[in-house]
Design brief:
about 350 residues; alpha/beta; 2 domains; two-stranded antiparallel ribbon; about 45% helix; globular
Length: about 350
């Protein structure tokens, strides 16, 4: 096991990364204020890991109440959020009752938002079971739900007390979900760590083959970057926005195609290729760089061509992006491979060319 710390003064918390961690009750109970917890999971993850986690907690004298939600991005809604509140209220859960998110990014985001708002705040623990949630969404305290007009537009910054990334849970992850997680891993190399990008190019086959050491290294390196950025800019007023490389285009894809039809990582991959194309048109990176980026996503078995929603629809959805400021869209682009920048005055003609060229 390897442990990192997200440094946020009195709200700092550990990220434990390793294999077999779900069976290590002491890692969890050290962060539980009482002998009662609520576990929020979904219909896919529950049959795999819920009983084992409950047994681990029971051995330490902790009673757990499961809340099992339907699986998928399509259910990341206010209605599903109310299902969590209904269970918490029905069972009279108190401010000392932690919520444990057992699942991927959707479960983590919704559980975190429920924890931030139930009784105005209860303790929250992340146990991410997908690669995407282990390397990105479980760290940093972004919580929320989707709205028909935009992804993650309703939510709160609310930090967990602990992140427990058990690499063993990736053994049951479908290939498509594994690839989706690799999109966020590649992102870290592109925006701030060229040596890591080169390592990914050399080890992509090992990652796809689920080599445990390679996966643990990828999760560790990704979480190191996420922890550093969050500690420096918790509420995304500056540097943290750079973590959204490809997300402005990607969120438009998810919204336009209907939540759940494209996995988040798939949309981010195609969106990052669009961001790379726009970066080239800005004169910052070369055509060869764009080919390099596209090739790595293809090797990770991710889409590199975006759906044809039409230029106007893309612009409309991107207009609802959280990075919009003063009515103007801002884009995370690549000044060079390994260095990202937030740009607010992208010429509309170049943006249109990218939208027309990448679909």
């Amino acid at each position: 096991m390897q442990t990192l710390t997200v440094g946020l003064a009195e709200r700092s918390y550990p990220i434990h990364i390793g294999t077999g961690l779900l069976a290590n009750a002491e890692l969890l109970t050290a962060h539980l204020p009482g002998k009662r917890v609520a576990i929020v999971t979904n219909t896919t993850v529950a049959p795999l890991y819920l009983e084992g986690l409950q047994q681990t907690l029971q051995e330490m004298g902790v009673h757990s109440m499961p809340i099992v939600l339907p699986d998928g991005e399509a259910y990341k809604t206010a209605d599903t959020l109310n299902t969590i509140y209904d269970a918490l209220l029905t069972h009279r859960c108190e401010r000392s009752t932690p919520l444990i998110a057992l699942g991927g990014g959707v479960i983590g985001d919704m559980t975190g938002y429920a924890a931030a708002t139930y009784l105005r705040g209860v303790p929250f623990i992340q146990i991410p079971t997908t690669l995407l949630s282990q390397v990105d969404s479980s760290v940093g305290g972004k919580t929320g739900i989707n709205h028909p007009l935009g992804k993650n537009m309703i939510g709160a910054f609310y930090q967990p007390r602990l992140v427990l990334a058990d690499i063993s849970t990736l053994d049951t992850l479908p290939d498509k979900e594994l690839s989706a997680g690799l999109a966020e891993v590649i992102k870290y190399g592109l925006i701030r760590d060229l040596p890591f990008l080169e390592w990914l190019e050399q080890n992509m086959d090992k990652l796809l083959a689920r080599d445990t050491q390679a996966l643990q290294y990828a999760v560790l390196r990704s979480c190191q970057h996420k922890a550093e950025v969050v500690a420096a800019d918790e509420r995304e007023s500056g540097e943290r926005a750079l973590l959204n490389l490809g997300h402005t285009f990607g969120h438009a894809i998810e919204s336009g195609m209907g939540y759940g039809n494209w996995l988040h990582g798939e949309a981010v991959a195609a969106g990052t290729v669009m961001a790379a194309d726009l970066s080239q048109r800005m004169g910052w990176i070369s055509a060869q760089d764009v080919v390099r980026i596209r090739t790595l996503f293809q090797r990770a078995r991710l889409p590199v061509v975006s759906p044809d929603l039409g230029v106007e629809k893309y612009l409309d959805y991107m207009g609802h992006d959280k990075k919009v400021e003063g009515g103007k869209m801002r884009f995370v682009l690549l000044q060079e491979v390994g260095k990202a920048v937030l740009k607010g005055d992208v010429p509309s003609a170049l943006l249109q060319q990218t939208l027309e060229a990448c679909v």
